[in-house]
TrEMBL record:
The chain crosses the membrane at residues 16-34, 54-73, 85-107, 113-133, 145-164, 170-188, 209-234, 246-269, 276-295, 301-320, 341-358, 364-382. The keyword Cytoplasm does not apply. It is a multi-pass membrane protein. This is MFS transporter. Keywords: Membrane, Transmembrane, Transmembrane helix. The keyword Chloroplast does not apply. Pfam families: MFS_1 (PF07690). Residues 16-388 form the Major facilitator superfamily (MFS) profile domain. Its main location: membrane.
Length: 411
């Protein structure tokens, strides 16, 4: 997408839009927030790396499962109530994480956090587009900006607060979410009944996954997310930095991901088809992970691989999501809900498996595992390429490209 497609009105938005955008920043911060404090949680709560990695797994499992039904929920109770429910769950469970006395409790409360995150993220984009001034492309770009800030700032805030105590990042999120709840309650209006969407069937996401093209992409996304979360969730352990050092490293990761997803992917898709881009970038991710595994004892090399991985993941998030949205004639909210749900479930297994592999084969083994998963994802897309001809042929407007960026990084 080109920045020239957006006029000055992108920043001249109703206060309701800014309230949702602020809440979006905080919600996306939660994805990388725990990275810098994983080693501290493992040490102070007497947990193994595999046990502390379950903080990601519980969060991702519940997020993935709930995302399969979020369109059902929001179509029945409305966007504002869905947003507030999501934020409320995040607030409560972030606070409970902060006061927990065992790693088992933190793992359980992170699952509740995942429930809130799924409800909020799946509804925020549509809410911003509906309430914004100046057209959908500008509104989506604003959402992208919130998303990029959240992904980059999350690890940095986790490092800053985590240098005080591992509990501080959780308290920080609870406070910010309380502000977001108040802002949305006051500033976001409930639309008239006539403007509310038709209720979505309970089985809509599962029916969507039965479509060959979407089913193929969901399988590829499972393996892709294994690679994604091996790098994101396991790397704090071999890095060996303090909370601030880990936070700065993953700030670079989030910044690289945001840059490539917003600007890099659209540029690449001007010269190659989507499926071609996928089978180019996924092997590059595998190479990056193999190099990370070989050079894992070098802190500088591992940091470089983490940031480079963020750059490559940004491409894939956007390109895969664009492909999902245009591969079938399924309504886009339902297709996105189905794809995102399966994708999160795929990523849920990666962190504890990576930690167990490290116990058996050292720090190199998890990265080899992630690289193999990226190669499998590439093979899945390559062998099923004919099913994705519709997505390769689809014409993208700037607004559709922008939405793909937003949904890709959200998922």
């Amino acid at each position: 997408m080109s920045s020239g497609q957006h006029n000055g009105s992108i920043w001249k938005q109703p206060t309701a839009v800014w309230a949702v955008a602020f809440a979006s920043v905080v919600a996306f911060m939660g994805i990388g927030l725990v990275d810098p404090i994983l080693p501290a949680i493992a040490e102070q709560l007497h947990a193994t790396p595999a046990e502390s990695e379950l903080l990601f797994t519980s969060y991702l499992v519940i997020t993935g499962l709930v995302m399969l039904f979020t369109s059902v929920v929001s179509s029945r109770i409305g966007a504002k109530r869905t947003l507030l429910a999501g934020l409320g769950f995040i607030l409560v469970f972030a606070f409970l994480c902060a006061i927990s006395g065992s790693v088992d409790l933190v793992i359980g409360f992170r699952a509740g956090w995942g429930l809130g995150n799924a409800l909020f993220i799946s509804t925020a984009l549509a809410t911003i587009v509906g309430a914004a001034a100046g057209g959908s492309a500008g509104a989506i770009m604003l959402y992208e900006a919130a998303l990029g800030v959240g992904l980059a700032i999350g690890p940095l805030l986790g490092g800053l607060l985590g240098s005080l105590t591992w509990r501080a990042p959780f308290f920080g999120v609870a406070v910010l979410m309380a502000i977001a709840v108040i802002a949305i309650s006051v500033l976001l209006k409930t639309p008239p009944a006539a403007e509310r969407p038709q209720p979505v069937r309970l089985t809509a996401a599962f029916r969507a996954l039965g479509t060959p093209a979407l089913g193929l992409l969901a399988v590829a996304a499972v393996f892709y997310n294994v690679a994604f979360f091996v790098l994101l969730a396991y790397s704090p352990f071999p890095l060996g930095f303090d909370a601030m050092g880990i936070g700065l490293t993953f700030f670079g990761w989030g910044l690289a991901l945001a840059i490539s997803s917003v600007w890099g992917a659209p540029l690449l898709l001007r010269v190659v088809k989507r499926t071609t881009a996928i089978v180019i970038v996924l092997p590059l991710i595998a190479v990056d992970l193999v190099v990370a595994g070989i050079l894992v004892e070098s802190k500088a090399a591992l940091v470089a691989c983490i940031v480079a991985g963020g750059f490559l993941f940004g491409f894939m998030n956007t390109i895969l999501t664009e492909t999902v949205m245009d591969a079938t004639d399924i309504p886009r909210p339902i297709a996105s809900s189905a794809y995102s749900g399966v994708r999160f479930l795929g990523g849920a297994a990666a962190p504890p498996v990576a930690a167990l592999l490290a116990e058996l084969g050292g720090h190199t083994a998890p990265y080899v595992f992630g690289a193999a998963a990226a190669v499998v994802a590439a093979i899945v897309v390559l062998t099923g390429r004919r099913l994705l001809a519709r997505a390769d042929a689809a014409h993208e407007t700037p607004a559709r490209q922008a939405e793909a960026v937003a949904l890709g990084d959200a998922g």
